[in-house]
Structures
1.
Amino acid sequence: MPFLAFSSSKQLGAFPFNRWRMGSLALLFSAVVLLRALFTDHTTFAFPMTDVLLLLLSGFVGVFLGDSALFAALRRLGPRRNAMIFSTHAPMTFFLGWLVLAQIPTTFEWIGVAMIFSGVLLAIFYGGCPDRQAA
């Protein structure tokens, strides 16, 4: 995804690009919901208002603000560096689960996180600079 959005987010900016993206998705999802409502027997969809408000808040923070920050970083760092930073998502989730939720990791999970993190470090160290390339 970052590679596909790089030129558009660079030209438009992070927030305008994300507004266009979210608007397009809202139209597509609205069409899908409308078509589904036309071809099913369900006439009412009942959601408690508190659930709807929590979904709206979650979507705003997680999708709109998070994606805007992602595209702002993509614009500043470029697709390669942004992908490397994004690949540290699994190790960060692993460590937060361990520290905050007191989850007990297995040996294989420790090995997997170490492999991911060392791969990111190798990509940062050896990537993009010809004089650092291994012979």
Note: The chain has six helices and no strands.
2.
Amino acid sequence: MRQALAKTTNKGKYLLGLVFVVLVWGASPLFTKGFVYRYYEPGFVALFDTAVAAVAMGVIAIPRMKHFNKQYLWALVTGFFYSAACIAQKFALKQTTPGIYAFLENLSCIVVPFLLWALTAKRPSFMKILSCVICLVSSFVISGGFSGGSMNTGVILCAVAGIFYGFNIAGTAFFAQKLDTSLYLCLQFFENFVITSIYVLFFDHFSFTPHYGALAGMVFQMLFSSVFCWCLRTTCLKHLDAVTVAVVMPMSAVVTTVFSVIFGMDTVSLSLVLGAGLGLLSIAVSEIADHMEDKKKNSRLEKEETAVSENS
């Protein structure tokens, strides 16, 4: 019973860490949309951001290189989906609002449980599937799907990015449980830099005029939002259910939408309100499912401990 309580306490700690990541990532698109894109095109932003993240994570991971083995090569598989999602998002944000961008990113929630089912043969509970369906409907509503909203290129790219993030979350949860976080992410970030460089140099064109305030802001954003928060998120993912992570992440969309409305980047609409409400409902359903599963596990552990004490 004590072990079960300790596990629950640790879970709460990692859940708080995930909430912190949600808050930071919720504010990040507004900074990029409202400040960085005034000076630089998405291609340069993508290239600069990935370079900063790769170098920073490389410095952090150098002392951990002695732990490298073939298991870390899975980071290249999950990293491909991360890279594709990042590229899609950078170009999507230029063509849509931060609120729509943030919610459509959370299409990952519908991918994760079924991909994990395929990888682990562990069938997700009805409540987990229900939370994912609600999250999917939330994304559709926020994009204007029920109100005749235009499904432009930005909306489509946001949706694709969300699905790719789902593959990254599920793959990380399955393959990286016992791997060092910094070394695992180092491989992902360097792969992201290589793929982004190839894409930008061959398929995108941008002009560069130095604006040191914007560059300094981008460096700070990448070190804090990408490097630190990705390390924290990956660590939390090792101790939390992957479906929970995929469904809790829509809270970043709520944060983004609120600030986006405050700063005039989005307008309050029925789609935004309904989408935000459904997103929060999907989180509540997922948490109820987690609580029910934890209750069953704790009850089983308590019975096992009682049986052991009686036999002794």
Note: DSSP finds twelve helices and no strands in the chain.
3.
Amino acid sequence: MNNGRILTTKEIQTVELEILKAVKAFCEQNGIRYFLAGGTLLGAVRHKGFIPWDNDIDIAMPRPDYETFRKTFGTRGPYRVMGPEDGNDYIYPFIKVVDTRTRLIEQAVRMKIEGLGLYIDVFPVDGFGDDRAAAEQRIVSAFREGYHLAYTAGTTAGLTPVQKAGRIARKIRCRLLGGRERAFARLCAKLGEHPFDASRYVGSTFGLRSAKELIAREAYATTVPVLFEGEEYPAPAGWDAYLTQMYGDYMQLPPESERVANHDMDARWTEET
């Protein structure tokens, strides 16, 4: 299987789809709520599968389910959960489910994360209270804090002087807060002040669109099945409002010049495969 070459977009999609199927089976067996999210949900609605040029899968879970999944999925076959609690070189504030038979370097990150392979992203959806304006402030604040903490990981090798200064400043601040793990625990505790199931407004805390991720909880109250690469997966019942808020006229294809993958990946099989 391993011949040293970089995997194609189609091969990457195939590996990620198998991870998604494993996660689906685990969630169904354990009563864990999850939804297709972001570009993956858009792909399901618009293409009934991957956006043709896309190379990642995003799902989201209400915070209680996310924590259960994070603590119980562990390692299953070739798949394992990676998260900010696991090591000093993991630079994301949310978890990923990784295929350990692969090795991956994302060029935009400019650093190697030990053990990172092809993955699907799993985002927590938190509650942010009943007042829209206050909820927007909370999700933006949590988004910034999460990524500031995440980017205390790793070295400064390969960064520009400005990037190096920013990372060093974050590392110092994190130490003053008692370390990265404690700081993440405090952030999660703060997010728990407005529980998902009791909040009028909820959102994918670390989704890259920040305040645009915020939506009335009714959108997530129930799920509907959507087809993704020949198999049904749950989507929020309010998927239309969600996609409109995130992407505008989401059924309109972007210009050809913008039809590029979200992640610049160097993905290969390991020597053991």
Note: The helical segments are 9-30, 38-47, 63-72, 132-150, 161-176, 180-191, 239-247.
4.
Amino acid sequence: MIFKCIRTLAVAALAVFSLNVAAQDLIARQAPIDRKLKSVDSLALVRLIKAEQAFYPAYSLYTTWKNDRVHAYGNTVSIPDSFRIDLTGFCMPTTHTKITSKCGPRWRRMHNGLDIKVYIGDTIRAAFDGRVRMVKYERRGYGKYVVIRHDNGLETVYGHLSKQLVKEDEFVKAGDVIGLGGNTGRSTGSHLHFETRFLGQVINPEFLFDFPQQDIVCDSYLFVRGLNMYKSQRTRVLAAAKAGKLKEVASKNTGTSEGGAIRYHKIRTGDTLGLISRKYHVSIDRLCKMNGIRRTTTLRVGQIIRCS
């Protein structure tokens, strides 16, 4: 009787042990499968993210994709204090080398790009790989123009074209023909108006492209918020970067409003520099300096002036 009890207990213990070993063996065999499934899920997620990024150039920088306005951002994007922009894989937008108007104050307003002498029908090419955001016509401004957003974070604007040869949302490669030179819109002669912007912020194209030499200035451009239009600003940025004080310069820069967006004001009847100064909390002297005007300058209704 005692022997039977012992045998029963032994069989039960062996069964429990065998079940435990089998379960552990099953778990051990299942672990690599789980890892493989997780790997497959991760790869699928990576592919999905890459596909979405390819569909929306500079996906990590821009929050929207709209085709209604050139300057569509305002305070909707977060502008970093500094950012390194890759300029490799470029193509000069035109083979012409003569600059007829530079970036900066002009005729009591800001000229936010370069004017390069081209003739009606001359080939205009995409500067970098990207996706066409806008193909529009503006009678009192750009005329027939194209806006492209690029993988490196830049957006380029090509204005006063005689013909647009791409469509909105079309993908282009650097060097693809996007239009023909012209004299449409607010233009006094055939030329290409060429703008380079980062998150809506103007960058002087001469800091990126050397049109006389038909080359880029360097392989990458160091963007610093609010310091991208004048040569004196660029000299300051490069000196600060060399001295390791770039963050200090960026934090002290007061050329932009809170949040980094440059603000503009359209002159209305009754506006004066004093009124604008109080409205935007900026001194009259600074308003004059930013817009290349004097305290005695007559403000024209409809004129656009920079306020921060």
Note: Residues 254-260 have pLDDT under 50 and may be disordered.
